[in-house]
Amino acid sequence: MKRKNRTVPTALRRAAAAVGGLLCAGAVVALATTGTLTPGAAGQDAPAVDDARVVPVAAAETGLVCPAPARLEQPDAGDDAFSAAPVGTNTSLTTAVLDGAEGEEPLVTTLGGEQGADLTGPLDQGADAAVRTGTPPDARALRLTPGGATYAAGTVASVTTEGDLRGLVAGPCAEPAVEHWLVGGSTSVGSSGRLVLQNPGRTPATVTLQAWGASGPVVLGSQSLVVVPAGEQVVTMLEAVAPDQSRLTLHVTAEGGRVGAYVQHHRIDGLVPAGADLVVGGGAPGRTTAVSGVVSTGETVDDAHAPRLDVLAPGDRVGTARLAVLGPDGPVRLRGGEELPLEPGAVTTLSLGGLPEGTYTVVVDADVPVVAGAAVDREGSAARDAVVTEDPYDRAWLTGQAVGPSGASADGAVAVPEHVSWGVTLAALPDDRDPDRIDDATGSTEVTLRGVGPDGAEAWTHQVDVPAGRTVEVGWAELHAFGDAVAVVAEQPADTPGVVWSVRLAESDDTTLFSVLAPTPPLAADGDVRVRRVDAAG
């Protein structure tokens, strides 16, 4: 890939990552780290010698696994007027590889590694990125050869305008891992969850499932172990293994290989569609997590369609979570909701109704490790010829983003599907989120947004000033005025308040069909390993 002769931003100056791709056919993530190799026992200091050397080590190939197109498992039966799938589902795959090395092309394969011209559209390779768009008939992956890519982002989006799957079901292509935390979904009456496990490796993976609901851990019995063959995916219907759960959190752990995992969730209220989306992996349990992109239309606390926050403390200790709700005008107090008691092993849900109309970021600080997520509903309109005249809803499941001791970093990328409108939501997290002092938060972070055009060239650059303690939206009208983009990258300077962000998608012809995506972080960079000889006898 030809590079521009220009000064690149902080994240793009990083040592290039070696990427193996969104390979449903099989790569294992290996990251080069800086350390000292010695044969001594752990925790013992090795004797120093004079011939220590620094050896550069390239990051190993990695793979990003893409969600499969949305689908219904149950057969359609009965009167055509009440069909569960009266219209088809249109699915698109958009991928962008940024700041890659010259001559490298992203390849799209099946989980088993097969390639075919029908898997994607043409490759557009510009000075800044390699871009592919197309229609995937099944699970797909973007495969990159090693060298120089800083970001790789992919999004699969399925749009269904009527029926049980009505909604914009979107999810990112993500690195396979040995552990996933999925916060969201349900198996109560009218709800269905398809847990999809994908193995892009060359050996079978044994997956252990844990589940928690409103009342505590859910007993899965023999269903807690799932073997996922190499190069294949396995689907488990959650209502069959964890029935009648009004809320769910899943922990997926794999042995023998790394896997992709997500839940396709949809709901119906009687015969009325009530939303469909993907529940994707979020941050691992930690003391702080943030949820970006919570939208309120002014719903009351007792409104069944008010935004909601789900929090789980998976350990065995009772805890308390302190919530900071950051709105467009600064922190907003939740009456009676600033502190949330946490029972160990039980998913706690808090209604976010009562917030003024606007877009918010919710920060959860807890005295025990937690995971979190949120759900947002949007009301649509019944079709003119619909037998049932009640208005349908769509639902987006929002992912909790882990915030470490050093704060958050905005650096990341999101691939944007074609034929959707979209906007970016950003929030700068103040260091002091004590309810008595958060209103006094000062400082701001200037985030650089960069749009990648369909031709692989940088389409635009936009600076956004994000005050600490506030949520800022950059809407579709503003972004579209800069030019078409199939991916957006956000970067922030060091030593500034940490920023979390997300991208909200909406179907162009019906904006009540929507989804929210968290960014994919930068790829693993090359690193150095310090190697020195030691006296084995010492």
Description of the molecule:
With 538 residues, the chain is an all-beta fold. Helix content is 2%, strand content 44%. It has helices spanning 238-241, 476-482; strands at 36-37, 53-57, 64-65, 90-98, 107-109, 123-125, 129-134, 141-143, 151-160, 167-172, 179-183, 191-198, 205-213, 216-218, 225-228, 233-237, 249-255, 260-269, 272-280, 286-296, 308-312, 319-327, 330-332, 339-342, 347-351, 358-379, 393-402, 412-415, 420-428, 444-452, 458-467, 471-474, 487-491, 499-507, 514-517, 527-531. The longest helix is centred in the C-terminal third of the chain and has 7 residues, at 476-482. The radius of gyration is 23 Å and the shape is globular.
Topology record:
Blueprint: E1 36-37, E2 53-57, E3 64-65, E4 90-98, E5 107-109, E6 123-125, E7 129-134, E8 141-143, E9 151-160, E10 167-172, E11 179-183, E12 191-198, E13 205-213, E14 216-218, E15 225-228, E16 233-237, H1 238-241, E17 249-255, E18 260-269, E19 272-280, E20 286-296, E21 308-312, E22 319-327, E23 330-332, E24 339-342, E25 347-351, E26 358-379, E27 393-402, E28 412-415, E29 420-428, E30 444-452, E31 458-467, E32 471-474, H2 476-482, E33 487-491, E34 499-507, E35 514-517, E36 527-531
Parallel strand pairs: 1-36
Antiparallel strand pairs: 2-36, 3-8, 4-7, 4-9, 5-8, 6-7, 9-10, 11-17, 12-16, 12-18, 13-14, 13-15, 13-17, 18-19, 20-26, 20-27, 21-25, 21-26, 22-23, 22-24, 22-26, 26-27, 28-33, 29-32, 29-34, 30-31, 30-33, 34-35
